[in-house]
Amino acid sequence: MLESRNVSVFYGRHRALENVSVSVSKGEIVVMLGANGAGKSTFLRAVAGQTHKMEGGTVLMDGADITRRPPHEIVETGVALVPEDRGIFADLTVRENLILGAHPVRARKLEAHNLERVLSLFPKLGQRPKQIVRTMSGGERQMVAIGRAMMSAPTILLLDEPLSNLDAK
Length: 169
Fold this sequence. Notes:
Elements: E1 2-11, E2 14-24, H1 40-47, E3 54-55, E4 58-61, E5 64-65, H2 71-76, E6 79-82, H3 94-101, H4 105-108, H5 111-121, H6 123-127, H7 138-150, E7 156-159
Parallel strand pairs: 6-7
Antiparallel strand pairs: 1-2, 1-3, 1-4, 4-5
Helix pairs in contact: 3-7
């Protein structure tokens, strides 16, 4: 399903990641563990097309090369990233954030179904569709971020530090 081969990323002269190869099969859950600064977030951003300093290496999704494709095209292949900072729109409502997640062409026809699925997984979001996200707790914001990613009808969901800052306002 998702495969990286010898992915390296540089920030200026600093090598943040060197020759990382990972293979994730359908239905498999993979966890990357490592110290702060080990390159976990950099790797996920590289897979999602959000790191422009990737040198060498290949990223494949269902056998198709997505290495140099822009993020909006990578989302269309079924890859969704929930970044560590969540990437939510804090001044929008819960519902607005979720509906924005259904923007990819692959997700538009499934919007109602995916919204129902997200709200069944996170019932608290269904109770607060008009709440401005910045007024929510860290855990609630994380639900919004994961729910928004799920609205894109992903084949694979990349979660960067899904438990961090859950106590943050």
